[in-house]
Amino acid sequence: MFRPSGSGFRQKLTGLTLKGVLYGSWILGVFPFTYDSWTRRLHRSKWLIAYGLVLNAGFILLVVTNDTESETPMKMEVFHRNALAEQINGIHDLQCLSMVSMMLLRGFWKSGHIEKILNELQDLQYRHFRHYSSEECRSFDGFVLYKGASVVLELISMLVLELGMSPNFSIQFFIGLTSLCFMMTAVLLAASQFHLAVVFIYRYVWTVNRELLRLVNQLANGETVESERIDNLLNLYHHLLELSNRLASIYDYQMVLVMATFLIANILAIYFFIIYTISLNNGLDFNVVIFLQAVVTNIFDFWLNIEVCDLAERTGRQTSSILKLFNNIEHLDKKLERSISDFALFCSHRRLRFHHCGLFYVNYEMGFRMAITSFLYLLFLLQFDFWNL
Length: 389
Fold this sequence. Notes:
Elements: H1 9-27, E1 33-36, E2 41-44, H2 46-65, H3 73-81, H4 83-109, H5 111-127, H6 138-165, H7 171-220, H8 227-279, H9 286-324, H10 334-349, E3 355-356, E4 360-361, H11 364-384
Antiparallel strand pairs: 1-2, 3-4
């Protein structure tokens, strides 16, 4: 499913990453669909939904009942020095569990809509974009590989964080750690589904832009272009924008919760870092390095979610710029000119953007605002608890 064309090493690695996300999502119960290779259609399975609910509920229960994170020497030292840090850590743990539960439940609840969107993406691939090679679209392969790498890095970062701060390696600790790894992998893979769907929409819009450029070159060389080809591209473009809006409406709460969790985790990590190194005069040691690598990994994954949506938005803006090139062609056929005008008018009123919860668009501008807001919240927290530092 959704296998990119091409036989190079980069394309093979991209296909392997897509298969890894697909099979991992199936195993962990966050992709409740069966695939019919004959009809090339996904079908929602109630058995897989039940399997996913039971499996992930078990992971959450094991994490809650085997939580030994707060007993680590570093956190015990920080909590003894600052009671507010312990309260905030408890609230953050509750927020993380709420995020996991909300994300998985909404994914199952909206699985019927997700099924329709994925099937429509497959139809676009086989009916309209199958003959276009994706080897020139390097950003597509890059973002797929980056997302696969971010999932692996997040897991490694969590393992380093937990193992590095663990006071002992009891059976309870290993049960809790294993359950936490599976639970976080399920969340990361569920978030990756939105990321990869956006990447595929970007690739299709990029293909439409390349086809428009080819038509401009044909007209510039004196060749004829049928207006139906422009109309067909407009229909495809309209369909892609509709899919992007539906996709954002399904995943908006999940992605907002994931991004907020990463930002809150970074704020708390820096807050604990200040208490541990400055208030307790411990200086830089291995525990500090562990926290810093977790912050860097979270920033990478957070910014990757911002960048993929911004890339799709920028590619949509390029469509309008490409359509302006037709103005340089003289003596256009009236019917062709009307089709180009309709396409340009549509692009002026509809833009490819990802709007979450009716509050904000996901792009570089909003990413910088969220990063600055996180820094301000850190300052507010330090000012509020200044006398206890």
